[in-house]
Every structure is written in C-alpha cells, then in structure tokens.
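Subject: for your reference before the review

Hello V.,

The reviewers asked for a structural picture of the protein, and I figured it would be easier to keep everything in one thread rather than splitting it across files. Below is the amino acid sequence we used in the manuscript, unchanged from the supplementary table.
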Amino acid sequence: MPYIVKIMPNLRTRATHRKLPPPRREQSVAVLAYDGVNTFELGMAVEVFGLTDMGRDWYRLVVCTEHPGRPLAANNGIRIAADDGLKTLARANTIIVPGWSHIEHVPSATLLDTLRRAHQQGVRIASICSGVFILAAAGLLDGRRATAHWAQAELLSSRYPAVNVDPNVLYVDDGDIMSSAGRAAGLDLCLHIVRRDYGAEIANRVAQRLVVPPHREGGQAQYIPQPVRKAEGDALASVFAWAQHHLDQDLAIDRLASRAGMSRRTFIRRFEEATGMSPGDWVAQARVSRARELLEATQLPIEDIAVATGFGSAEALRHHFRQRIRTSPMRYRTAFQVSGRMGVGEDR
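And here is what came back from the structure prediction:
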C-alpha cells in the first residue's frame, strides 16, 4: 500500500529555480546514422543534444556514419549525409543509436567492433527503439536488462536469448548501457540522460523548449491497452496537473476520484489504462521525482523534503527512495548536489 499523508502543511521552498552546473567533465554526444535509420529518432537526438542556446557547457554533438560523405537512405526516403566517421564516434562520451528498418540484418562487423571497443573504453551507449538490435548484435546486452518496442520484444528475446528483455517499460538505464522502447520513449530516454548529466532543472528547461512532459520514469508502461474517452481523458489530465502541484496534501484515491468526477472503481480502471500503473504507484513516483529535484537544487533538510513531497517523515521518504532509486536520499544528494556551482549557459 502507498504511504498516504492525510493532512500536511504547504512548505514553501527557496531555491527551486537555481541554475544547475555543467557535468563534471566535458560531454560529447555522437549520434549514429546509417542506411535505414529512422529520421524521427535521429532528429530527436540531434534536437536534444544539439541545442544551440544552452551555453558553451552544453553537449558537443556530432553525427557519425560508417561511410562519411556518402548519402544515406533513411527509412522514409530522405537522404542524409554525415561528414564524420566511426573514429569520431568512438571518441565520444555518449553514443546514441537510433532505430533502423533492417532488424532482420546483422550490422557490419566494422560497426559492431567499433561499438564494442568504445564500450570497453568507457563510452556510454544508448539505443532508441529498434537500435537495440544493433547493441544486441554487438554483444553489449548479454546478461543485461534491456527494453524494446513491445511489438519487437519477442523477436529480440528469441534472437538474443542472453538479453534480459523487459517489454513493459519505457526505457532501461543500466549504467553505461541504456535502451528505450517505442520511438517517443526515445525522447524520454534523451531527457533522462540530460537529467543524469545536468540535473532536473536543466532537463525540465529542455522539456519546456520541446513542449513535452518534463520527465517520465522508465518504469512506466509502454502503451495504453484501451483508449481513454475524451471526457475522461480531460478529467484525468486535470487530476494529474492538480496532484503534481499538491503533492504535500492528501492524495488518497477517493479524493482523486472525486476531483475527476468518477466513482472510485471507474477512476482506478481508467487511471491504470491511461498510465499503466495504479494511482498509488503514480503518486509515489511523482513524490519521489519531486524529492529528487529538491535534493538536487536545494539545501533543505531531508525531513523538510519529506514533508514538502507528502511522505510525512524522513523514514517514509527513505523507504520509497530506496525502492525506486536504489539508493538513499543523502547519497543521491551527495552525488547530484549542485549548490553554488555554475549553471549551463552562464559565463565563467
């Protein structure tokens, strides 16, 4: 059962809009292009990591291909030309592998060897949608958890049985190897990478620029089993927005259902269809996400953060944090605390 707080004061915080610092080391991102690459996925990676007005501490972006200068045929007939080759790809801090339309083929030995050597040298590699088949072909996912589009998950699992395929999540962060599900989930993964490198405030700023939700946890379900009728969709959207701004209050199911104008039973069913999780899980996740932001961007004591996010006590916050983030709030703050350091876009 989720931990629910019935009555809670509204605690104001001071530093939620503070600029966040650059990552600890210069970040370069290489996006891989090839014949059959999905232009949507290629484009979203270029858009996120290639923003031109985030300051000189932002990522250095390059698009690489096995055959520089040769026009590539994307999945929809668009021609793409990239001037950088695989040597540049291997020198990046992060490699993004968009999906491709030839999953029945094995990529070239040269490309697979480049990805293996880059990973051995500490390069972080992330795939979007069917790009996971390239990572699997390179052996980078053997013995590791990964995800794929739900329609391709069974094929990935049968073709590469050493991979622990989870078809029920948006993306998987396994440290130095990441994978995302369907195409739009690739955008969630890109924003997750920004959050890891620069913190929640900068990731939210990028999301606002793109006019997309700031962050969806990787554990959310990939798709909606049944369509949500427009009237109910509007009602649920209103509840989501209200709850996000009242995490410190009583968010019991009966109260949320009342705000949506639904019976408890209908609300739970439609909520799960829309989000892939129960209302209690969604509330706990939203509270943990807000706690992460406060841990990163403020000096508030853990007890105050627990109150501000509706957990009520530091003990309850620690429980949910360990359950979802696999660490304690204090260790998370130590790793991501950014107070007093220069933010992206600031001059030295």
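For the response letter, the relevant points are probably these. The domain at 1-8+227-338 is CATH 1.10.10.60 (Arc Repressor Mutant, subunit A). Residues 267 and 320 are 24 Å apart (CA to CA).

Happy to draft the paragraph if you're swamped.

O.
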